[in-house]
């Protein structure tokens, strides 16, 4: 046996040179399309290197320190109106849906954001029947998120004199069972999924990377998703909210995901440029690192490892309808709240549209995020 094989390396004739990852400068300089191209080139390089686990591990550890997603998410929520748009719609719709209820239980499946739930508590106080008893269950795999949310909600409820109960559930969506939610008879139930339900679409599916094959536009059957939505439907929530990226990244063929991703993230990166006025900024880089990780997952990963399987509203509407849900018409004055919030950000280019039973925020003509509400 040759010496390289003894050392666990491929022989010289089969040895693959270390891929030339895009230089770090390409990720932080240039216009939005140049930076986006560098992210996709990096993701393709990672896809190739993953065939050699040892090399992949070495390169992965030698790169820059991974940026904390929480830091990036805080910047995203503060500097852009995308999340605020969806929150404004959820808050107004939820308060109106629960206006005549005396015992309310809201299940937050993954968000854990006080900026959503504190205004909800404040809105419940002004109901026609006075403050109801409110219980908020938050499901999150990060214990620190649960603790931070609980502290802020308890303090706010005390200041508002609202009867309040907090139920933290420290598990992922895949691990969640109904008994963990501590549901009680007589509660008016509401569920929220904010930018996380798509992870349940991850499965060990067959990959069709043939460029010549036809794109399959059918909604992919997913046993785990069907079972999860059936579980939620079984407890008859009064309203269920869904917020997801308005893009199709749950496609078998790499070429389809790649093209769809280019279109979607070009809008994201262009809006980042407009917000930061095309100046180099540490905050901009932190944001683009977060989205770069999403791009890498979409392009470089397959099977269960590929969790960023975003789907457009029209596909989600099929899944929810098959599970027994019906769309709820979002109140028109929700749009007024959302418009004021978007205008306050001071950046031109954002648009809001009504697509069937969904409201969407767009960057110019490209829908970016969609919010919808469902009932049983």
TrEMBL record:
Residues 73-138 are annotated as: VHIID. A motif (VHIID) lies at residues 104-108. The keyword Transcription regulation applies. Keywords: Transcription, Transcription regulation. A motif (LXXLL motif) lies at residues 197-201. Residues 300-375 are annotated as: SAW. PANTHER family: OSJNBA0084A10.13 PROTEIN-RELATED. Belongs to the GRAS family. This is Scarecrow-like protein 3.
